[in-house]
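User: Predict the complex with S-adenosyl-L-homocysteine.
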Amino acid sequence: MNQELTQAAPADAAAPGKIMLVGIGPGSVDHMTQRARAAIAEADVVIGYVTYIKLVADLVEGKEIIRKSMTEELDRAVSALASARAGKKVALISSGDAGVYGMAGPTFEVLFQSGWTPDDEVQVEIIPGASALNSCAALVGAPLTHDFCAISLSDLLTPWPTIARRLDAVAMADFVVALYNPKSGRRTRQIVEAQRLFLRHRRPDTPVAIVKSAYRRRENIVFTTLDSMADADIGMLSTVLIGNSNTFVRNGLMVTPRGYANKYDMEDGGSTRDGEKAGRSLSTGLLGWLETLQAEHAAGADIATLAARHRLPADYIQATLDEPLDAAAPASATEESEA
Ligand code: SAH
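Assistant: Here is the predicted structure with S-adenosyl-L-homocysteine placed in the model:
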């Protein structure tokens, strides 16, 4: 329809096109944002993987639809740009969030390659969506309530040593990890290698949740442990959540503590522990820790000893000790929220 309009009224041919990178969430209409639905509704052209187009079938009737298979991502971006240059509004659909292992990156790469800049008449809008890690976490409890990261085990575009180094680094640093693209028909060994790297740093009974097809028809959730996760049923539609050293599973819920127990007595209704204050850094927070470090150093511990004791690089310990203590004093004493 829009095409006819453009032909009938040549002035409209100058109307700039637009590319909308739409994250549609995990795969149920209920978990799609209003803006995502509106963007698809206002598009002239909808481009995406067949499964996702089916999900929004009610919105795409009468529109130009370009269905692409999984491996045609660059093609999708090129098609989007061609349509937008022709004055159309294009919705490029990604599952989850378009910027998380999705179409946003390849689209900008294609755009920049073609000489596009942000002040080009073709506008780009990125519409955020709940990524698999948000959806999968919500289904299993609260596993991401402390520092976490995402690693994709896909070696289709990333060399294995790069992936392995990242796995090793985050396993050592005790992050909760969401593994995307953990396994496919052809890629079966990656998850075994990931397990091996993690077991070098984490306990075998570290909780692991495997969520398959979150918020989709074949949704399936399995709780297991690090030492047996590779034996579980894992596929292309699974996300693997590996807990940190404090993560636990209770009553079917995987929880990573936020750290309240470091400061409050959780049993007696929340009185602060000795030496701790609500709204202030922990006694082992930066300032408290610096005092400890200075004291240990003054008592004769050398840099190497302190580095080993605090599991931090020696040059960082040295630089920290070289800085006068009051340089770290807070500028204002306003209280902070802990949530
Ligand atoms: N852009 C997407 C990720 C695409 S990469 C997002 O933000 O979620 C594809 C990987 O995402 C899959 O291999 C799987 O690990 C994960 N994934 C996507 N949808 C999922 C779902 N509904 N349930 C579980 N994992 C999912």
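Residues 268-327 form one domain.
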